[in-house]
UniProtKB/TrEMBL annotation:
This is Ribonuclease HII. It comes from Pseudooceanicola antarcticus. The keyword Hydrolase applies. The lineage of its organism: Bacteria, Pseudomonadati, Pseudomonadota, Alphaproteobacteria, Rhodobacterales. Its cofactor is Mg(2+); Mn(2+). InterPro entries: RNase_HII (IPR022898), RNase_HII/HIII (IPR001352), RNase_HII/HIII_dom (IPR024567), RNaseH-like_sf (IPR012337), RNaseH_sf (IPR036397). Signal peptide: none annotated.
Length: 206
């Protein structure tokens, strides 16, 4: 069973018209930004096959991202490596979410946020939905858009900093990435507040 539109329909029954699903990608990587997307689906034109982006292949994700860009209200935003190191990954994820919501071309009546916390300062009615990308079509759509956007950034950075495998691991701490970090050192795009990166920096200082 994949996500459905029941959460959105319940909100519509209570008078909400524009409902945004919001999700982030990139909390776990050692490198690169954290990326969030906000998506307001058109109830009359929901692409088939939306699911948690982690459960979809690359080709299917790209097809759905193109369909969503054509049929829905979509926005993408990021929080930088510097911001992650300054305010921690959870707060940076929420910052990226807030930016994505603010960047939507229309103001939603209600926001469905993936996870168990609503970003502080969000000035809109909102509901936190645990495992939302597997429950809500709007959140699942946002997970797809965010994943495509962040992967593209990491593929571009992989060409500037070859050897870390970012084009395939997207900055996550795979064995190959950890090995490259050990052998090649820390780049400007590594998160210095994350343990494996901090350990390399401490090693190099000694």
């Amino acid at each position: 069973m994949g996500p459905d539109y029941s959460l959105e329909q319940a909100l519509m029954a209570r008078g909400a018209r524009l409902i945004a699903g919001v999700d982030e990608v990139g909390r776990g990587p050692l490198a690169g930004p954290v990326t969030a997307a906000a998506v307001i689906l058109d109830p009359e034109a929901i692409p088939e096959g939306i699911n948690d982006s982690k459960k979809l292949g690359v080709k299917r994700r790209r097809m759905l991202e193109e369909a969503l860009t054509a049929s829905a209200q979509v926005s993408v935003a990021h929080a930088s490596v510097e911001e992650i190191d300054q305010i921690n990954i959870l707060q940076a994820s929420h910052l990226a979410m807030m930016r994505a919501i603010s960047a939507l071309p229309v103001r939603p009546d209600h926001v469905l946020i993936d996870g168990n916390k609503i970003p502080k300062g969000l000035n809109l009615p909102a509901t936190a939905v645990v495992k939302g990308d597997a429950r809500s079509l709007s959140i699942g759509a946002a997970s797809i858009v965010a994943k495509i956007a962040r992967d593209a950034i990491m593929e571009d950075l992989a060409q500037q900093f070859p050897g870390y495998g970012w084009e395939s691991n997207a900055g996550y701490p795979t064995k190959a990435h950890r090995s490259a970090l050990h052998d090649l050192g820390v780049t400007p795009h590594h998160r210095r507040s994350f343990g494996p990166v901090r350990n390399i920096l401490c090693r190099d200082e000694n």
